Amino acid sequence: MRRKLRRSGRFAGEQVEGRVRHWLVPKFARFEAGAAWLDKGRFLTDAPNAPKNGDSRYAYAELDFSF
After folding, report:
1. pLDDT at site 38
2. Distance from C-alpha of 54 to C-alpha of 2, rounded to nearest angstrom
3. Under a CB-based contact definition with an 8 Å cutoff, are residues 50 and 42 in contact?
4. Residue 41: left if φ>0, alpha if ψ -120 to 50, beta else—which one?
5. Burial code of 22-42, b = ≥16 C-beta within 10 A, e = fewer?
6. Nearest 10 degrees: CA dihedral of 23, 25, 29, 31?
7. Fewest 10 Å CB contacts: which of 2, 17, 28, 36?
8. What is the pLDDT of residues 14-57, one digit of tens each?
9. What angle do CA 60, 52, 17 make, to 5 degrees?
């Protein structure tokens, strides 16, 4: 039995993430920042009702205090 081919494909995409941490004051205050990028593949762009807003990008920053 042959399966029907999906017009939107099966590849969702690739995601790249990165993060950096740095102690501002050793063992007391630490800064962290990170980012992620989702390179949408054919499935996430061509599927029915898929949003047409392009690739997704996220970023964050935080400051942690330990005491």
Report:
1. 95
2. 33
3. no
4. beta
5. eeeeeeeebeeeeeeebebeb
6. -30
7. 2
8. 999 999 999 999 999 999 999 999 999 988 888 888 888 889 99
9. 30
